[in-house]
Every structure is written in structure tokens, then in C-alpha cells.
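Archive entry. Fields below.
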Amino acid sequence: MITIKEIARQLEVSTTTVSNVIHGKTKEVSPDTIQKVQKFLEEVEYVPNISARNLAQNESKIIGIVLKSRQDRYISLLQDPFVCEMLSGMENAIREAGYFMMIYMSDDIAEIISHISTWNVDGLLLFCMLDDDGIRVTEKYHKPIVFMDTYAEDVLHKYVNIGLDDEKGAYDAVRYLIECGHRKIAFLSDNNIGVDQQRFRGYRRALKEAGIEYSDKNFLMLHTETEEIDRSFQRIARKVSAFTAVFCCSDLFAIQLMNILQDQGIRVPDDISIVGFDDNLYGRLHRPALTTMHQDAEHRGRMAARTLIDLIKGIQPESTQIVMKPHLVIRDTVKRLKE
Amino acid sequence: MITIKEIARQLEVSTTTVSNVIHGKTKEVSPDTIQKVQKFLEEVEYVPNISARNLAQNESKIIGIVLKSRQDRYISLLQDPFVCEMLSGMENAIREAGYFMMIYMSDDIAEIISHISTWNVDGLLLFCMLDDDGIRVTEKYHKPIVFMDTYAEDVLHKYVNIGLDDEKGAYDAVRYLIECGHRKIAFLSDNNIGVDQQRFRGYRRALKEAGIEYSDKNFLMLHTETEEIDRSFQRIARKVSAFTAVFCCSDLFAIQLMNILQDQGIRVPDDISIVGFDDNLYGRLHRPALTTMHQDAEHRGRMAARTLIDLIKGIQPESTQIVMKPHLVIRDTVKRLKE
DNA sequence: TTGTACGCGTTATCAA
DNA sequence: TTGATAACGCGTACAA
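PREDICTED_STRUCTURE:
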């Protein structure tokens, strides 16, 4: 890789001149020199050494994407369709803006923080984080951050968050079930914090509004550790007969549940109705096609990245709390019990 | 971020001493000093500035992952389940080895090459590349490279390739179809180069061996541009009635085809049998569950990354051509026509 | 055992 | 209009 210094030597000009031409500071260079240098730069296919530039300018052009993983999960976050869609949108926006993406995936927040500062990352995109992990990062990292899907109070009034109206999404989905005549409706998730807590609230609100009583048995808690997942689904499948519908917190869960039920001869939607959340390829490709809450993860990822890059450039977003609206996509997994 | 120089100043030692302690070159430092420095390092949570280290040592600790994308494709590579599985394995191995991953995804090889040299990437993992793109990269980049799934002759005898026996995989799958009594077997792919070309050869070999004639009509060519994909699948669905089975070059294609067929009232496997390739979540979660060639993309990704990191450390692999064997997983999408 | 000084490639300041 | 030179943070050869 050729350096500025070497170019300067061969062209018998100074490094400053070369640097100026590279950066288009042409006011201070004679047309002749510009021509000469530019031609040479193209010939040798000069590319700057980013490490050197980072050192001199104290900016890295790296956007860090932080994914708090959990070792014991049955699939890696990179295999989760929702995460991938989001990443795909982020990657797109980051590349478009001339930045680079570095993914920091670990179950150890301290390690993540140390990596971030080692690389002197220009800005951070945080998601899939338990709430106080987000705060831990903000304590150590003092450059622009954009959160996705956080509900931590202490974060929300200080940082930008690109969220989704999860409460409303779940509410609408469950309301639809109720309109279809369902009253015994279960709630399926693998946790009850953050996003899924909001969805749970929406679920409860819809039930309450319809005068339907809630019992703890309605909450089907999935255990997604590698050794547990199958048994957990089996256990839940057994409980399901007490309900006429299940609201699932992700398309993936919905489909896995449907498969287990179908394998046992329980038909969807004839015997039980299912609603998912996300509307990704999995739901669209399943048969019967999944009725689900649509959210555009890719678009949201792209927005988050763009907002972050604006922030890095000193442009403040119009609002620090951006909340997108999901909408119901009715397909074939909910049975109408009454007209 | 605190620097070595600052630490040295505060502790009233030299930067060399601090650096030596950091790197465990303890032979040359007195126990007292080591203690003192180490304690301080922990206190201030020292992290080295990687850019500076890169510059000084001419190594970046970055593994570049190159994905040649195509703008017009209906889904991003980051949403392709096969790619994600592979990436997931790579990410894992890279992190474990203390390296960092940078994904270079673009449809412009020249841009990718320039990014790679800008970052002074230590090693490269190449996949999803049309053959001569791989060569173009090797012409410009002269550090360790590991290919995945390349069949370019000029690459194979000079570089490490982690491949799959695609020919045999397709052969086995099609043989299985023939054993089940199928003779009118179509081949579905969106291209006929590299991996899929090999699969096509395996398909042809199995047909030939069974004395089944091949006609160009057997090759169902899918057009996966965003505006074409639906129409293309429709067109193929119409042609499918001439066959009793379809061998698909990916699980994703297989499932999309099955859905279109099922939506038109054509039953799988009763009216037509389908075999896929990859065995990823999509196939496993579909109903009827897909009969498909299994390959462990995650494992292959991990191996590729490990091999590359060995190469970077100067460790040569036992063999430069690693070819994994896929195996058939029989599920529910192939009908037995004879006993 | 410890410290000085230099180089890595780039940018920025300031003098010529 | 151009060119020296210092600075960024780290590692290391060599001197003390």
C-alpha cells in the first residue's frame, strides 16, 4: 500500500500538497500540481490508511452495533430473522453514508465496552439489551448513541430511541382475536421485560376492556435455553387446549408452536388460532400463512443508523422519541368463532 | 481514554515499562513496578488504542468478510438464512480468537478492495462470489485468504477453500428421488455457475446413470430480481405439472415453490415431490417438513474462520482443499411412487 | 531494571 | 503556492 509520503517523494512535492489535493483543498494548490498529483493518485490506486487517519483526527468512521447475546440460547442472534432484518437495514444506511459497521456481540457487557473504546467507535447502535445494560454502556461511552426498543426510563429522556408501539400492537392483535369471538386467549413469550412487557400490557388492556378475566395461567413462558426449548414447547403445547387462541410475541415462536401442535394433530386455525408479531419471512412462508402484527424491521434499522449518523455530524433529530406503528396483517391462522 | 504516556507520567515510570507490563514482558521489570502498574491499569480501565497499535505493528486484528451482493435481489444477503448461519459461525470463531469482524458487502468489487486495503485487514473470508471476482480480489490483496464454495480453478490450486461436495449432494438427492420411482425430475436454481453448476452436474449424473433423458426444459431457471421473482415463480409453477419431482438448489426456493403450488391447490408430496438443499430453519419449520440435503453452514463458517486465523498466525492447514460431505435428511415432501 | 527516541501514515499548523 | 514540522498513541531497538 503506497503512502502519501512515498507519493510526495516520487512526485517531488511535499506531503502537505498531496494531502491537500486528496482533500480537495484546491484553493491552495496550483492547477498544474493538482493535475499531476491527481493523475498519480489514480495510477497507483492510492487508499488512505484509516488507522493513521483515526489517530490524527480522532475519528474512526466505525459505527458499533451492540448485541447482547445469551450463551445458552438455542439459536444465535445472527440467525434470528428479526435481528437480521434490522441489521440489514443498518448495514445499508451505514455503507451509504461512508461509514463502516462493526458488530459487537457478546454476553459480557464489560467486554463490549472495552472493545468499543479500543476501536474509538464514532457512534453506537444499541439493541437487544436488557435495560440496565444500556445504562452501563452510557456510563462509559460518551459519544452519540441511538437505542432501539428500549423502555428504560433513565435512557429515554436522555437518548434517542427508535421504538415501536408494542403496547398498541399487542392490543390491536388481541382486540382482533376478541372481535373474532375468542375469549380464552393465551400470551406466549420467553420473557416479561422491555418490549415483551409492553406487549403484555397491551394484551392485558384488550382483555380488560372486553371484560375478560386474566389469570397467570394465561402467560405461557417459554424457556429458550438450548436444552430446554423442546421440552418447553411440548409443555406449552399441552397447556394450549385450555385456550382458543394464542398471541405469540414473535413470528418464530408462533410458527414453532404451530408446528408442534400440527404434529400432534391439532389443527390451526380450526382447533386453535394463532397470532404472531413481526411479520417476517418465516410467517409469510408458513402454511397456513400467519396472521401477525407487521413491523418493518429493516426500515427501522435503517432509520436508527441514519439518525445516529446525523447525530455524529451534529444534526439533532426532530424528536428524540420515534415510535413507529405496527399494523395487523390478517392471513390464515385465526378462526372467526362468531359473525 | 487514558494513554500509556499519561499512565507513565502519573506513575513516574517510562512508557516502555508500562508497555512491558501490559504485554507481560515481566522478565525485565521489577516485581514492585509490575504490581504498581498493573493495579493502576485496572483502576483506570486502560484499553489500548487499536489504531495506534495497528500503525505501529502493521496489523489490524480485523478479519474481513466479503459478500458480493446484487442490488436487484429481492432479499438482502443478510436476510438469507444460509448466509446468516455461515456468518454466525464465522463471528463466533473470530471473536473467540480475539479478532474483529468487518463485513464488506457491496456489488462493486473495486469498492470492496479499496475498503479492505484502507483498513489493512489481516485476512479475508470470501464467499458468495462469482468466480472471477475472487481472482480480482487476490490480485490486489496479498495476505491470507480463505475461500468458501469456490470452484474457480485458478483459485483452487493457490488458496484454501472450504467447500462442500455439491455434486455428490445433488447426485444423492436425485438418486433418492429416482429410487422413490420418480423419473420426471426438474432442477430449480437461479443460476448455473459455481456451486449450482456442480449441483446441476450431480443431478445430470444421477439421471444419466438411471437412463433418464435430460432436456433443457428440465432446468427451471428462477429470476430473483425484486420485480421478477413473483412472476418467475408463477411461471415455474405452471411448468411443474410436467414433472413428478423438483430438486431445488436451496431450502428457501423449495419452500417458496411449495407455497405457490399449495396455494394453487397442488399438494406436496401427493401431487408433486420436492427436495431442497441446505437444511436450515426454513425447511425444518415448514409443514410438510422439507426433505433436503443437510449441510452445516454454521460449522463450515466457523471452520473457515479458524483456518484463516491459523493462516494469519503462520499455521498451514493440513489440506488446502477441505470438502465437507452433505447428507440427505428425509422428511415429508417426497412421495414414494413405487415400492 | 528502566528510559529515550524513533517510526508507523495521516492531518494540521505555521512559516517560507 | 508550497514545504517543514509536530502531533496522534503505541511498540521496540538500543542506550543507560
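CURATOR_NOTE: The mean pLDDT of chain A is 93.
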